[in-house]
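A reminder before we start the practical. When you read a complex entry, don't treat the lines as separate problems. The point of joint prediction is that each chain is placed relative to the others, so the output describes one connected object in space. Small molecules and nucleic acid strands, if listed, are placed in the same frame. In the example below there are two entries. Take a minute to note the order of the lines before looking further.
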Amino acid sequence: MSVANRIVDTDGLGTASTATRPRSQFPNFKQAFNAIPDRKWQIEVQDQLLQYVNFKPGWDSYGAPPVTWDAGMFALNILKDVMRPRTPIPQVVPSSVGGVQLEWHEKGIDLELHVTGPYQCELWFQDLNAPGTGPISMDLTNDFSALLKPIELLTQR
Amino acid sequence: MIKPVRELPDFTRPPLSEVVLSIQFASLVNLKGLHLGLFWKQFRKQYPEVSEQAPIQAAFETFGTPQLSRPTFQFQTLLSPPMPRYWFEKTGTPDLLQIQHDRIVHNWRMVEPAIAYPRYEKIKAKFQEEVDAFSTWLQNERLGDIRPNQCEVTYTNLIEFEESDGVHAGLSKLTPLWTDEITEQISAKLEDVTTNARFIFSLKEKPAGRVYVQFQPVFHQSDLRPMIKLEITARGRPDGEDISDAFEFLDIEHTQVVRTFAAVTSEEMHQIWGRADVRGK
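Here is the predicted structure of the whole assembly.
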């Protein structure tokens, strides 16, 4: 539970705050600047996504569009909820349809998540250390529980 | 026995100060600020004032994974040049239209106590007019189509009590989400408390969105009198990518918000606010 006193501007409320002044619980500490990413994966993935979003059309010599802003934002949103401190950072690869592919190929795990837009994803996963179990392939929209086990394996192995 | 009279909870004197209807859509990469100046001509009489704000970050409701703290991504702001969010309004009137590259929003605000709440259906009708006009204009200018991927309904309430002392510590009077039991165990006086709750609502037995509830101590800007702000937001993904799908989903979210408001506030406050949809014993 946070404790904060806020001054509200009753004349100009909007979906963005207009006049609030949060009071820090710990006034002797310097305030962190929330705008700066403080997770390594976030910095690396963001940098790559920014490059791909700014690609020129036909970047692959076959007419591929650049990665869309929406696909990039949604990919970041998914990672925010599954990445842990020890989870390996994914490879980030632009796809030929304006999407982005997040890939992990390590520790006997093959995991690929192709994000073509918000709520439009394809998952492909295989655990090479689990003989007898074939690859899993599925479309994902708003439920990403299928990612939990592969990410757990990547993190813990 | 209390019998429901109407389908939705209904109040004659709700402490409502703002209603926000928002549709997020696939980013219109070719839309620039200058283009919006052309669109503004259609609404200039209604909204003669324009201002620029920082864009709102895209929001997505996903399920099945832990909902950890939400970092702010620099991604959006590093796209150059970033398109701001434009406010279209008229001083002294309650309506505000907001547009950015991936969102269109209509706010109704109680700018004066004398302004009566027009009810959701009227606010929605105005918003629908604006969205339809924007969509038609985009197509005529070949700037893209509105393909919704998220909808949001927010109701903000500002609640005052007759006594000005102890307002911020009096949350237990307002909501069953907070009790005063803890203060009996510590030798300290409760000053204020912020309470957050989050609910998942489903459609066709699958998670469809979330309802966020926040009680927060605030002060009125003009005279610093203490109040409690109750903000309820329903957010989720519509069933399809048409504008009509978005408005259907806004209706569902409106229902969620109103039911949640009734559920998270006390019967004592319902009587003060004139709850009209139930009859007592």
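Discuss with your neighbour: The longest helix of chain B spans residues 243-264. What might explain this?
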